[in-house]
Each structure stands twice: as C-alpha cells, then as structure tokens.
Amino acid sequence: MHTLIVHCHPEARSFNAALRDTAARTMRGLGHDVDVSDLYAMGFDPVEASRHYRNRANPDMFSALVEQRHASMHGTLPDDVSREIARLRKADLVIFQFPIWWHAQPAMLKGWFDRVFVNGGLYTGSRRYDRGQFHGRRAMCSVTTGAPAATFGPEGRSGNINLLLWPIHYSLHYMGYSVLEPVLAHGVQDARGGFSYRDDAALAAELAAHHDRLAQRLSNWQTDVPLRFPGWNDWDEHGVLKSGIDEYDRFVSGTA
Fold first, then answer.
1. Phi, psi (deg, nearest 5) at residue 29
2. Rounded CA separation 158/150 (Å)
3. N or C, where is the chain less crowded by C-beta within 10 Å?
4. Are 98 and 8 in contact (CB under 8 A)?
C-alpha cells in the first residue's frame, strides 16, 4: 500500500508540519510506503502558464486545457507535474494537510490542483466522478483553523466548515476519489506555541489530543464511510439530479 501526503504550509515548525509527520509515522506503522509532497519546501510553482509547456499545441494563444491534453498525449508534461502524477498513481490514500486561509486552502495548494490534475491525462469529459481515474482510491483533508470550532458551525461567524471545504472535496470526487470526512483542528494559528483563543496549557492539551485523533482516523482509513456524492446514474441527460433522489445535501453532500 502507498500513501501520498500533500502538505502546504510555509513554516517547517508549524502544527501543520507536525500533523504531516504524525500522518507519515502512522501510515508507515500500518505498513504503507509514504511519499510527501511538501509544496513550500519543494518550491512548487502554483501558477499554470504557457512557460511550463514546450512543443505547444497552439503557440499563438494559451489554453491550459488544450496544452495539458497535448502534453499528456506527447509525454511533455512539466517535470514537477509528472513527478506529482507519478506519486498520485501509486497512492491508495492521499492526505492533504493544510490550514484554512481566507476561507479556503492556501493558493499554492489550489495551484497544485490546477496544474497536477491535468486534462486528458487524468480526466476527460467521460472519465470523472465515479468513473474517474482514481475510482477506488481514497482521499482525506487534515485541516487547521485559527478560530474556535463553534465559529465554524452552520451559524458561526467563521463560516460553515462543510461549505468552506466543499470545493476541494468536490474536486477530489470529480477525480474519482472516495472522500473521507475531514480531520479538523480548531483554534490554532499554524505554529506550535503561537497565538490561540485558549491559554497555552489548554492549547497544548488540545494539540496533543488532535495528534491522537488524526492517528486514529488514519488507522480506520479503509473502513470509514466516505462522504456521499452523486454519480453518473444520479443525473439526468441535462446533468441535473434526477427527481426522487434526495439523499444528498445540495451544498455539502454529507454522509448518507
């Protein structure tokens, strides 16, 4: 078995980095080979642009989808993208470790999605969702937030965490993954010992407990019930959910 951890945080001493290490240690303890894509440490370029492509399909106008498809077909994808795709192809489980910044994942991680999930190579119009490249594989987000957990509830001032994470979860579903419930650590500011809404002793105890929760969740990665998303048989010819299919939350696609 193989696990890929995609880690996105600029500080090597952050709590996110500590959780990355907990995940790697846990999965190796379960007998997995583990790859880590540490995006900041690698200096990953998150900006999709014409400079990444040689032997362009259309040198006069840049279309990311056209160039991704052309490069996939001709084996000329950028080296950093090819490396990430090779890691994805090996991975039975992909773990995304990141903080919530401005109500979403950091821009570098969004750029990783933009560049690595290449058109033609990893998905097509008919090869996505429950027919996707990674059908049968699993993915999980391990996420930190700065504000307390209560503020991320349905009526919270920080925004409903399920809504905030819906775009990344849906993108993973688009690629065929079974998406597990996220593992959440609230009330931390990315660095061990940094500012918190709680006193230092309470924060230290909570962070230690979170390491244990993450390890426990990862131990159950094969048996936990994934989030419920619609698939091809649930949509009509217009791509709209068929009448009478109501087990999906229209916004967060919660568990069945």
1. -65, -25
2. 9
3. C
4. yes
